[in-house]
Amino acid sequence: MVVSVVTKTCEKVVSLVSQPAVTPSNLSRGHVPELSIAPLGADAHDSLTADVLIVPVFHGENGLELAGSLGGAWGRGLEITLWKLLVSLGAQGTPGEVTTVPAASIFSHDDESEEAGADSTKESSPFTTIIAIGLGDSDELTAETIREGAGTAIRAVQRTKDQEPASVVSMLGIFDPEAAVIGHALGAYTYAGFKEAKPSVATVSVVTPPATEEDNSADEILQHARVLVDSVALARDLVNAPANVLYPESYASFIKNAAEAEGLEVEILKESQLEEQGYGGILGVGQGSARPPRLVRVSYNKDAQDTPLVALVGKGITFDTGGISLKPGANMWNMISDMGGSAAVVGSIIAAARLGLNLRVTATIPLAENMPGDKATRPGDIIVHYGGLSSEVLNTDAEGRLVLADAIARACEDEPAFLIETATLTGAQMVALGERTPGIMGSIEFRDRVSMISQNVGENAWPMPLPKELAKEITSDVADLKNISTSRWGGMSVAGHYLSKFVAEGVQWVHMDVAGPAYNTGSAHGYTPKRGTGVPVRTIVASLEAIARGEVDH
Ligand code: BES
Ligand code: ZN
Ligand code: ZN
């Protein structure tokens, strides 16, 4: 910084404008362990050694079952010894049950080590600790049970202050390698922000079923899982960043750096360009803040011929105070997550590029900070959106739909076949579905398709209707629309109706409300950490993959 002598007032201004830009290198990043796979062939287990071994256990008619995952590698005798020890500790194998035992007590049952005595037993044990993770009934095993078990097990890895982060070998990959890798990696994610990171897990090696010689499917699975994990972690990092670090200008330049590094095209509209082009929704929401708004547009595969175009849109309110319709103070800090939709869209388009999907994708990302400054939009103001529709703003806290209206109208100009939009849009989503289940609305068939995809990946977006009688709730006497309903009911669907007015005819579209699911204000569970969750990155990427494979009708 060039300013060396400053007055008090000047200091304030300087500290505002000199806020360092957020770049891919200085955003606080969460920790994700290094991932690898270990195909189980004859004797392959001989080379497996680590601090921790994770073993799946099941709950059957007679209680604890081990289902052979260890026996295949180290012999039946060892499996029986482990089973006996776990039973003696009261293990049942029920979902999420964690039992930690010293590995030497199991591996010492080798003949050799039994004779050699306690000290050399320790040395000869390939692991220090075994974590047995309950997966419930083995007949009802699903990918999500494995992801959740993998996440719970990896979070149970403990380190003392003096120990290095652990190396982990996991047997969960025997059942579903990708689910195991994703569950372990996402479960191990930790975010330290401005504090020094102290991760517990350094590496995870997932044991997979024996591979045939030309079979490289395990490698492909690992590469695919890595792309998903990286994109989810990126979305989490962005959501976790506080609003003094991540604001429209710094966020836009972060997206530009990150997307261009993957070969994507990026265009950023600054305030003057938003004015020239008539983005009244984004400007109206952003004008109460000293940090001006932006519209970011990212394109993947722009010039590809004969592939469907999918438009992604994500709400990017870097902080939502409510504006003049100010929110109460309690829990307002959670509103750093009000850009969760945009973070998921950024992660998703980067994943599409890294996976080389055969389609075109645009991401249209409106960024604004909703503040109650002296230039802020007032209740009763009328704004004109991109494309010409007007909104009477009766509550400045219903700001997400105002910026999304502009972004959806712009995205539709490119005539996409599909539009996937996501936002932390309404408290009503949580009233209806709870904190973990996104509500999904839009074109019926596409909505149901994306909902099924979401349930398969474990993000569980649930289809919600746009009841026709709610359409009149957002009609205004003085503008095309008003931004809130005066009734208490159906707030999530009222917002969906509002957004539908900006979607062009013939576009298959969905709106995913992730107000609760994008940000975990409680404690960690399964593979979901505290704070940013990365929902709905995996739903969007899996939907893009289904479209690229030609599996989704238009
Ligand atoms: N960002 C909020 C929605 C939200 C609430 C997200 C809680 C995450 C957790 C949104 O901008 C908002 O304030 N919506 C209002 C709309 C209302 C004024 C019609 C709401 O849901 O209360
Ligand atoms: Zn709001
Ligand atoms: Zn909001």
From TrEMBL:
Reaction catalyzed: Release of an N-terminal amino acid, preferentially leucine, but not glutamic or aspartic acids; Release of an N-terminal amino acid, Xaa-|-Yaa-, in which Xaa is preferably Leu, but may be other amino acids including Pro although not Arg or Lys, and Yaa may be Pro. Amino acid amides and methyl esters are also readily hydrolyzed, but rates on arylamides are exceedingly low
Keywords: Aminopeptidase, Cytoplasm, Hydrolase, Manganese, Metal-binding, Protease
Enzyme class: hydrolase
Any one GO molecular function term: aminopeptidase activity
Cofactor note: Binds 2 manganese ions per subunit.
PANTHER family: CYTOSOL AMINOPEPTIDASE (PTHR11963:SF23), LEUCINE AMINOPEPTIDASE-RELATED (PTHR11963)
Domain of life, per lineage: Bacteria
Positions of the Cytosol aminopeptidase domain: 395-402
Main subcellular location of this protein, as a coarse class: cytoplasm
Protein name as annotated: Probable cytosol aminopeptidase
Biological classification of the source: Bacteria, Bacillati, Actinomycetota, Actinomycetes, Mycobacteriales
Binding site for Mn(2+) 2: 315, 320, 338, 399
Originating species: Corynebacterium zhongnanshanii
Described function: Presumably involved in the processing and regular turnover of intracellular proteins. Catalyzes the removal of unsubstituted N-terminal amino acids from various peptides.
InterPro entries registered for this protein in UniProt: Leucine_aapep/pepB, Macro_dom-like, Peptidase_M17_C, Peptidase_M17_leu_NH2_pept, Peptidase_M17_N
EC number annotated for this UniProt entry: 3.4.11.1, 3.4.11.10
Pfam families in alphabetical order: Peptidase_M17, Peptidase_M17_N
Binding site for Mn(2+) 1: 320, 397, 399
